Amino acid sequence: MQLRLLAPPLKSVILLALMATALAAFRTTIHAQSAPDIRINNYLSADRVARGRTIQGVVEMEIPAGYHVNSSRPLEKFLIPTQLTIEAQQRLRVGRVNYPRAVLRNLKFSKNKVSVYEGKVVMRFNISVPANFAGDGAELKARLRYQSCSDEVCFPPRTHEIKFWVSVR
What we know:
Number of strands: 12
Strand order of the largest sheet: 1-3-9-6
Oligomer: single chain
Distance between the termini: 83 Å
Strand content: 35-45%
Shape: elongated
Structural class: mainly beta
Number of helices: 1
């Protein structure tokens, strides 16, 4: 059937229907490839810490089902690792970050297993306050860098800024 043989109003209706179908398909494609909403929470193991003592800092990621982030030690060089970097302030000492155990998965984009985090991911580190610390507290700044993926597609890496307030007594 050729459109030129149809009456002008019918041409318009068909053209509008084709455009609406194309727009709906385009919206579905964009929506299906949106990065997941990963919730990031942070807290300290106690409200206050005494001088000369240590407190634990925690950063949690809540990754929705069907998605993952690369582990802190990906098995392929091209994958971007999850990294938590903490800047110590005012003579506070920050220990190394302890990452959770990764899960090995077979994913469509790789012939080899991929080292990932899924679900709730908890990263911990120690903060030591010197005995001669001056002041009533200090702010710690942290950056969480990660790349989220589904089984079929990876999204651009993100960096999330995090702040902790360490109250000292």
